[in-house]
Amino acid sequence: MKEVKDILPGKLTANQLIEQLYASGGFVAKKLALGVDILEKTVKDKDCVKILSFPACIISTGTRGVIVDLIKNKMVDAVITTCGTLDHDFARVWKDYFHGFFEADDKELHKKKIYRLGNIFIPQECYGPILEDKIQPILKNLNKKEISGKEFIWELGKSLENEEKKEESILYWAWKNQIPVFIPGITDGAVGSQLWMFKQKNSDFKIDLLIDENDLANIVFDAKKLGALMIGGGISKHHTIWWAQFGRGLDYAVYITTAVEWDGSLSGAKTREAISWGKIKEEAKHITIEGDATVLLPLMVSALKERLK
C-alpha cells in the first residue's frame, strides 16, 4: 500500500511533475506517469522496434513539434498515420495556420474562405492551393510509373531540402533519417486528391500500397520485440496493432485517447481488448490514458527526454 501524496505546485521540471502525478495516485494523473515509465522502457530496450501512430488533426497544432522531435531524434523506428498529416505538415512549411475558437460562426468562416479544424483556423489558400502548387511538380519529376506510399512520402520530404522551414517538418526528418512513414488511407486527404488529379493525365501512374504492406511485414517479422505509442484511434491505430499481431503482439503499448469504450469502437477500445486478439502480448506492459494528446503528449515526451538526458 502506497500513501497518496499531495501535489506541491512550484518550479518543477516536466519529469518532476510526472513523478508528483504518480505519487498523487489520482486517476489519469497516475496513468500519465505510468505511460512515461513504459515509454522509457520501450526506448531503452535495444531489441524493441518502436512504432508511432497518430491521426492528422494534431499536426494542425503545435503538437506537430513534438512529433518532429521524436522523429528527428530517432526515438521511433516507423510511423503510421493518415493522409492529413501530409496535408498539414507540408502546407505549414510555406503557410501559417491560426488560432481560432470552437464556437466560431462556421457560416461566416465559409463566406470568408476559412476552414475550421477544432479551434484552428486554416485559410483556404494555406491548404489546397499551396499543396497543388508544390506537389504537382514533384509528381511530374518523379520519372516513375509506380511508387510505394513510403517512397512517395520520402520524396515529399526530400523536396524540402532547401526550404527555410524544413527542420519544422515531419516529412523532412522522416526522409533525412530514413524513417518509414506508412499511410494506409493515403487517398483520404488533399495530398490524395493531388495523386488522383495527377493520374488523370498520367494513366500509367500508380501508388502501390501493397509494397508498403510488404515493408511493414518485414519490420514486424524481423523485430525481436515491438513497442507502440498510439495517439488517437482510427486507421492509424488499427493498422499498428493489426500488424503487431503477426509479430506475436506488442511488448509495450501506450495509448492516448479521448474516445469511449462502450460504443465498441476501435478508437475507444482499451489496450486490454487488444490482448484478446493477440495484438498485445498477455505479459506486455501497456496502458490506456484518457485525455487530449495536445496536452498530454508534450508533457510525456518532455519528461521522457529528461530521463534519457
What order do the helices and strands come in, and which of them pair?
Blueprint: H1 14-24, H2 27-44, E1 48-53, H3 64-72, E2 78-80, H4 83-91, E3 98-99, H5 106-111, E4 114-117, E5 120-123, H6 128-140, E6 146-147, H7 149-158, H8 170-176, E7 181-182, H9 190-201, E8 206-207, H10 209-222, E9 225-231, H11 234-244, E10 250-257, H12 271-277, E11 280-290, H13 293-308
Parallel strand pairs: 1-2, 1-9, 2-7, 6-8, 9-10, 10-11
Antiparallel strand pairs: 3-5, 4-5
Helix pairs in contact: 1-2, 1-13, 2-13, 3-8, 6-9, 7-8
Decide which structural class fits the backbone. Answer: alpha/beta
Low-pLDDT residue spans? none
Order of helices and strands: HHEHEHEHEEHEHHEHEHEHEHEH
Estimated helix fraction: 40-55%
Mean pLDDT: 97
Distance between the termini: 31 Å
The biggest beta sheet is recorded as: 6 strands, parallel
Number of strands: 11
Dominant shape: globular
> In percent, how much strand structure appears in the residues?
15-25%
* Rg on CA atoms, Å: 20 Å
Order of adjacent strands in the largest pleated sheet: 7-2-1-9-10-11
